[in-house]
Amino acid sequence: MISYNPKEFARFIVSLPKADTIRKMFPVLVLAALHSWLIAWLEIEYFHLSDTSKIKNVSLLHTLLGFAISMLLVFRTNTAYDRWWEGRKLWGALVNNSRNLAIKLNAMLPHDDVKSRSFFSKTLSLFCFEMKAHLQKEETQYALDTAAHPEIPNFDRNKHVPIQVAGLMMSRLNILHKQQHITGDQFIILNTEITSFLDICGGCERIKNTPIPYSYSAFIKKFLFLYMFTLPVGYVFNLGYLVIPVVVLVVYVLGSLELIAEEIEDPFGKDSNDLPMQRICENIQKNMKEVLEY
């Protein structure tokens, strides 16, 4: 995710970062300009359809359709942003729940039980990294330290890895309870905290595996293409060659809204505006070490 100062107004106008839609849409804008020039040239040099007064009313159709398509794009963008923001809230909950569990473990585990403290510190961090990899469908296994940890075995990558990590923590809690290192009430409290990790993972999977309905997405793309393709025809009678910059501007605005919606509707990817999951995982790892491995 790109970090920026929202008060630097001039920077937004001058700078063109890689995530800026004008970079991605530049070929489309060039084609739109050429298409508009061709329509204007044919009308002005050959057809002269603007001499007929009724033909100018064609622009009214695009005015009405423009209102409809703007409403569709607003709904599209708001829906995509809701998915992005819900993903951010879930990862914020993951940070809070990790800290809460670490604080409770620090208070309940014996101070000389270095082995258990190190285990939960590494496993809590591992859950976050593995959930990130699970959402991004990566196959690489993150190494938490240079030395191999005997209590963290190799996971079956064909199965749900975050569940396996949570299962490790539950098994460890069960062992501590049987050894009477924690009481039954403490076990119930810690069990609730670990369960919340899988609830967060399930919420992220719901966003990841439930895209915008295909029929809606396909319709808006077709509607948007037809509207932009016929836009020069609708306004060339009133604007002449001025239709070229007008069409390019409209195509840039409408196309950028669709590109932004496509990018943020899946907040767990690797695009510039996706969630900073790597930084969140590293922050959780740092907090776990500060609390449990002092």
Distance between the termini: 31 Å
Q: What structural class results from the helix and strand content?
A: mainly alpha
Order of helices and strands: HHHHHHHHH
Mean residue pLDDT: 83
Radius of gyration: 28 Å
Largest sheet: none
Give me the count of strands: 0
List unreliable stretches of 5+ residues.
Answer: 138-151
Helical amount? over 70%
Estimate the strand proportion. Answer: under 5%
Question: Which word captures the global form?
Answer: elongated
Number of helical segments?
Answer: 9
Short description:
This protein is mainly α and 294 residues long. It has helices spanning 9-14, 21-47, 58-108, 114-136, 161-178, 184-209, 214-239, 243-264, 277-292.
Q: Can you characterise this structure?
A:
The chain has 9 helices and no strands. The chain has helices spanning 9-14, 21-47, 58-108, 114-136, 161-178, 184-209, 214-239, 243-264, 277-292. The protein is elongated, with a radius of gyration of 28 Å. The two termini are 31 Å apart.
Keywords:
single chain, 294 residues, mainly alpha, 0% strand, elongated
Write the layout of secondary structure elements.
Blueprint: H1 9-14, H2 21-47, H3 58-108, H4 114-136, H5 161-178, H6 184-209, H7 214-239, H8 243-264, H9 277-292
